[in-house]
Amino acid sequence: MAKKTVADIDVKGKKVFMRCDFNVPLDDDGNITSDDRIVKAMPTIKSILDHGGALILASHLGRPEGKPDPAYSLKPVAKRLSELLGKEVIFSDHCIGPDPKAKAAALKGGQVLLLENVRFHKEETIKDKAAKEDPQLRQAKDAFAKQMADLADIYVNDAFGTAHRDNASMYTVPQLMKGKPRVIGFLVEKELKYLGDALKNPDRPFVAILGGAKVSDKIGVIENLLDKVDRILIGGAMAYTFLKAQGKGIGKSLCEEDFLDKATQLLGLARDKGRDVVLPVDSVAVQEVKAGASHKTVGENVPDGWLGVDIGPKTRKLFAGKIKGAKTVVWNGPMGIFEIEPFDAGTKAVAVAVAEATDEGARSIIGGGDSASAVQKLGLEDRISHISTGGGASLEFLEGKAFKCIEMLDEKSS
């Protein structure tokens, strides 16, 4: 069932609590190095303000371990928001207590209040399962969430990057606001549409590209996608677990020994379903991972004492050929240690192939995280249909998991 968005409700004269994902990267001086997540929240923010809503913004930033830490303050976000909006963004040094309560009460239509990092309080990240089992934890989480819930008349979730979490501001606040409008923002709407359409009604051929370090992180995704895709391309360090399961030599490449049997089962399941699982046919290998390390291209078998750090030139060409002609492409995870040159060549080649497929009419979706960073680093954003703001969230979505904090929100009438 489709969820209501801010476009479906009247916000004029109302206090609107909007959970955003302003978990932006900062340099050592506290300067924002990429405002992408702020920019992508702007359509929802501007819509609420343009329609006369008084807006209270909440977010986390980093992992401050449940206590105030100036290194993770949202003050730089308030400054950037003010610049983007061309108006003052009021800032509260707290997300609960007298200060945000007073500032929210005084807020008028068209004004914006940004609360300090919700993870400055340990109650924000109490797992709901733990809260159900421990009455004291439940009481603490509810009391924390209630102070935020009491600030507003409307709840808006536009934080897709945290949609797979049961954090208090994502899950408990809307629970406590039952009976009031609870909707999604335009960013979450866009994420759910692109990812949902890819899984439920893909144009074919449908190609999934999976990379990254661990097979264990992607098992659920592979199992779910085998019923939906035409082919899966597997690169990154996780490929070596599959290659070893096939009896290939992998030298000292990363391998999850506990998942060799599972890798064999997945390859067998793919054959049974008639799905094409494509593994690397060559690798770039080193004896030691470091910048400027001596490297060589090896075939399917990595020699003893060497480890694979990227897909090789034959695999790049193979993968590009498998991507060409696709009508739906989903990519999550780099093909190698792309942070270190020249071991970013495989990831670059895949990014270019996905962009070219998009140019030819494919719907392409990048599942956030390192894949998104690679595409942005190459300046290919405009040649991709959709770049997700949530690596972990998009991964769980591809795995078929439900987002409880989204499910509870108001549904559009049929």
Summarize this, please?
The protein is α/β, with parallel strands linked by helices and 414 residues long.
State the end-to-end CA separation: 8 Å
The CATH topology name of the largest domain reads Rossmann fold
Q: Name the beta content range.
A: 5-15%
Helix run count: 15
* Number of β-strand runs: 15
Characterization of this structure:
Helices cover 37% and strands 14% of the residues. The strands form three sheets. The protein has a six-stranded parallel beta sheet, sandwiched between helices. Strands 9-8-7-13-14-15 form a six-stranded parallel beta sheet, with helices on both faces. It folds into two domains: 6-190, Phosphoglycerate kinase, N-terminal domain (Rossmann fold); 202-398, 3-Layer(aba) Sandwich (Rossmann fold). The protein has helices at residues 36-50, 75-85, 98-106, 128-133, 135-149, 168-176, 186-200, 219-225, 239-245, 260-273, 313-323, 345-359, 369-377, 391-398, 404-407; strands at residues 15-19, 54-58, 89-91, 112-114, 154-157, 182-184, 206-210, 231-234, 276-278, 283-286, 295-298, 307-311, 328-332, 363-366, 386-387. α1 crosses α2. With 414 residues, it is α/β, with parallel strands linked by helices.
